[in-house]
Structure formats: C-alpha cells, structure tokens
Amino acid sequence: MPSFEFADCPTRLDLTAAPDGTRTGSLRCTLRNTSSRRQTVRIRIEALSGARSDWFNLATAPPTSTLEIEEDIAAGSTLTVEALVKVPPQPAATDHAFRLRVTSEAQPDTDFAEGPAVAFHIDATERREVKRPFPWWAVAVAAVFLLVVAGGVAYLMWPRLELDMVRGHPLEEAKAIAAKHGFANIGAKPGEPEPGHDPAQQIVVALGKDDTTGATILLFDPGVLVPKVARSDPRDAQQALTQKGFTASIVAETSHVDGFGDTEVTRTSPPEEQPAAMGSAVTVMVNIKKPNSGGGGGGGVGPGGIHPCTPWPACIRVIEVDPVLSPPRIDPRVYDPLPSIGSFPQ
Known about the structure:
Helix content is about 15%, strand content about 30%. It is built from four helices and 18 strands. The strands form five sheets. Strands 1, 2, 3, 5 and 7 form a five-stranded antiparallel β-sheet that branches. Strands 4, 6, 8, 9 and 10 form a five-stranded antiparallel β-sheet that branches. The N and C termini lie far apart (about 155 Å).
C-alpha cells in the first residue's frame, strides 16, 4: 500500500493569455505522508495528452532540473506542491493534461502515488507583434549629430581674424583688413609697446577683447612716454630713460637757461611726457653756467667759445677744484672742442 496520497488536487487548470500570445497558469496540490515514519520523496511532473515537458516546471525546482524536486515529509504531515505551466502561442486549439507523481526514495518501484490528471485547454492564437515604443533616443542622437555638424560648418564659415593678417600694419590699414574679413567697425585701444614702432603711426601689435562686449579689437603700439627728468642730474636722467627702454644722449645747452641750476637737465627731445618709440634715442639737454658780466670779446665765455659735447661730461674741462668736495667741482663755462679733460692739480 502506498505511503502517500494527493489529498487535494484540482483536475482542471485555466490558462491566461499574455500579450505576446503565450498562455500561463499555476496549480497547487497537497501531498500527505500517510505512513508512520519520516519519508524522503521525489516529486515529478508528467506531461500527458500530447503536452510537451518544456511547458512545465515545479516552483521550487532548481534551474538544472525544473520538472523534479526532492523533499522530506514527516509522518502524518503534508506538503504543498506548486506546478507552473507556460505554453507558447499555438496555431490551433488543443487540449492537454499533466499530473504529479511521487515516489519513495527507499522503495521507488513499489511505494509511489500519482495525482489526478489536470486538463487544460489551449485556444488557437495568432501571434501578435509586441508594439515597441518609439525610439526617441534615436531622435536625440540625430539631433546631437546635426548640432555637431552645424557647429562645425558654422565654425568654418564664421568670420575669423588672425594676428598675422594685421600685425605690423598702421591702425587704419589694419581696420580695413579686418573689415574685409567680416570685422567691420572693429575697435582698438593701446596695447604693449614694442621696439622700433613710431607711436604716431599706431602700429598694430596684437589682438585683444573688448572689456564690455568681449568682441575682438586691435591693440596698437602707443609708444613709451618720455619720463620727466627736468631739473635732475644728467646721470639720474640717463638712468630714468634707460629704465623706460630709451637710450640717452647728453648734450649741453649752447647758452645758459635761466631758472635752472648749473648742470641741471633743462629739457629733452622728444619732450617729456610725450610718446616715443621704445628703444629710440632721447636727447637730454644740460644747462651751462651763466657767464660773468662785464667782460668783452663775445660775452666772456672763455677761449674757444661754447661747444655742445657728446657724450657728456667727457669733454668738460675741470677748471676749479674745491679741496672739501670729492670729486672736484666742474665749471661748465668752458668746453674743449675735443673730448679731453684737464689735469687735476696736485
């Protein structure tokens, strides 16, 4: 006599149709151990009436053996077994069945039980294609691609102004060149000075950006302002000019300039605080001592007259020595026509 029985198991299963044409369903049966001892059993689904075994599986079965499970059932206890059915779309209506079978691991040939046949019906179905959502991502990709292409074309076609096109040209010429390349009414402002450019020509040296609009503008060489050196010592004037990038040429005035001390710088050429080309020469004029009054012979300025001298003071004769001062004080009234210096008294 079998040690098991299926105490509660339906004999019919209604399947539910899915959108893709498949039909699914599930069924639960109760298995009871009627013996007085604990039993290890093997439970299996059997396909009947033309059903295919790959339509079935047990809910707790491992993936490697979906049709069969092994369980332990205590004496007099029950076990719920769930069967799952999934039938692919069928071209014609058919009826099929399946059942559950349980066998004892101890006596599989003689101790077993079968559940009732569970019938199910499959309607003929016409397989329908699953409606896929519109691929909006493709539209987004295409839009990005078009933007990239449009951006590349715009970059190639957009007006561009390169520094090499305008560098070294006077400002007005550079503006005309810029207008030909799509930069009409381009702005300009002073840039950094460079050696050798006449500031009056406003030579373009770089491109820049407008502080307000960010538009491209021309930067021209404004030159360097000649520093104020009047009333200073010639050596200090020379140093100030060198620091600004000029070369200094010291030249004596041809006559005394009132209002300035002896050997003071009186003026420069080009004038102070006027722009001049970086690296150009600036002439520094130095005052001479006022001649004594009452003399004759051409104003009493000494033998040989007054001669401008460069470089200063290489050709000034030392004619007065004050033992307290060092170096000897120079009297610039008298100049040699040649660059020579008188001897210091011993």
